[in-house]
Amino acid sequence: MSMIERIRNHRVATRRARAIEHALRSANSPSVRDELLVIAQRHVS
């Protein structure tokens, strides 16, 4: 993996994490938070 790919992947992962955190903060119910956490876990692996 080239250095550019690593930087790009890191940037995408950071952007995704920020979006997930924002969605979790603005979620209205615990069930929505649970669904978001499930979706987030799919992207970690």
Q: What percent of residues adopt helix (DSSP H or I)?
A: over 70%
Low-confidence stretches: none
Task: Let me know the number of strands.
Answer: 0
Supply the number of helical segments. Answer: 2
First-to-last CA distance: 17 Å
Rg of Cα set? 13 Å
Tell me the series of helices and strands, N- to C-terminal: HH
Average pLDDT for all residues:
91
Q: Could you say which structural class the secondary elements and strand pairing correspond to? A: mainly alpha
Whole-number count of domains: 1
Task: Report the principal-axis shape.
Answer: elongated
How much strand content do the residues show?
A: under 5%
* Largest sheet entry: none
Short description:
With 45 residues, the protein is an all-alpha fold. It has one domain (3-44). It is elongated.
Keywords:
45 residues; mainly alpha; elongated
What does this structure look like?
By secondary structure, this protein is mainly alpha-helical. It has one domain. 87% of the residues lie in helices and 0% in strands. The protein contains 2 helices and no strands. It has helices at residues 3-26, 30-44. Helix 1 (3-26) packs antiparallel against helix 2.
